[in-house]
Design brief:
There is one protein chain. With 137 residues, this protein is mainly alpha-helical. Helix content is 76%, strand content 10%. A hairpin with a 2-residue loop joins strand 1 and strand 2. 6% of the residues are buried.
Length: 137
């Protein structure tokens, strides 16, 4: 039975797979971070939407104190609606990103486990081939 791959080719393949797995791990961490940031941004937008506003100066709306939205401040309504809509968008994006990050983590774990099995089999085969080479010599 002949050699299917040279040792240098196998080593290059292992190094390439190691790089892919390392970057996949970074991607997992990034996806979790994006999901958390979307949620934090949605929360901040919701908190900002309920701040009272005054429009004493034409064309300028000044946010002054945290309080529930009151109808007597009509200058605050468009701002609050915009911020609330943006909060809903980021909250939904955060939920989607969180589900995606969990899926990515599962795939990463499955990939790393398969790679570990493959490397273990490869090491066993290398040891066996080294032993049989010694026996032949």
């Amino acid at each position: 039975m002949g050699v299917l791959l040279e040792r240098s080719e196998v080593d290059k393949s292992l190094k390439a797979l190691e790089t892919v797995i390392a970057l996949f791990y970074d991607y997992c961490q990034l996806s979790v971070s994006i999901a958390a940031t979307n949620r934090k941004l949605a929360r901040a937008l919701k908190d900002t939407a309920v701040i009272k506003a005054t429009s004493q100066y034409p064309g300028i709306t000044i946010l002054i104190i945290p309080a529930p939205l009151v109808r007597s401040y009509p200058a605050n309504v468009p701002i609050a609606n915009t911020l609330s809509a943006a909060a809903l968008i980021f909250d939904a994006a955060g939920e989607v990103d969180l589900k995606f990050s969990k899926t990515v983590e599962k795939e990463y774990e499955a990939s790393i486990n398969e790679l570990k099995k493959w490397v273990k089999k490869l090491k066993v085969r290398r040891v066996l081939s080294a032993c049989s080479a010694r026996l032949i010599l």
